[in-house]
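Quick one: structure for this chain?
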Amino acid sequence: MGANPTVVARWTKGIIDWAAENGLSRQELLDAAGLTDRRLLEPDGRIPYSAHLRVWREIDEKASDPFFGIHFAERGANLELYDTVGYLILCSETFGEAMNIVTRYCRWINEFADTRAFADGRFVRISDGPLSGEQWPRQYAESTMALFVALTRQMFEQEWVPLEVRFQHPKPGSTSELERVFGCPLRFEAGKNEILADIEILQMRR
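Got it. Here's what it folds into:
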């Protein structure tokens, strides 16, 4: 990673597309991040992580949907947003294989993400957040954790439910949609954004 980390432009474009379809100003998001549609459409394009983060901060501040992040994960995202890594994940036969690809190539998607998955006794822990140790905006964090769950359900065609999901940010005023999407106990103001699952999920097959 260089001094100015980058992310896959297609990913940010997918977020902006979804936001624009759901009441936010596309131009305001682009202006806040110092981006243009042309740049987001460049083949194999990458943009600064700082611009990607500004998009999420703008969404966190201006989205009328208090659950924008998990709704994007549930309804607006797919593995194609992750470019080549998404296709590699789709070729995986088991959840364990898919997570190996995610953790191996996560820095190609986002050079400033600290994505981890490891066995811990009878559990699997999946965590994600910025390398700096700072917190992501709430919608960014909730979207990321929901993506792990939503894309797993989509890919393996099973209504998988984690044992617990943890977030670094404080508990929001309402958690109804989070409870619906994750279907498990939630913890806030945790040390990291993390999903706790039974170790048997590593063998879940398509």
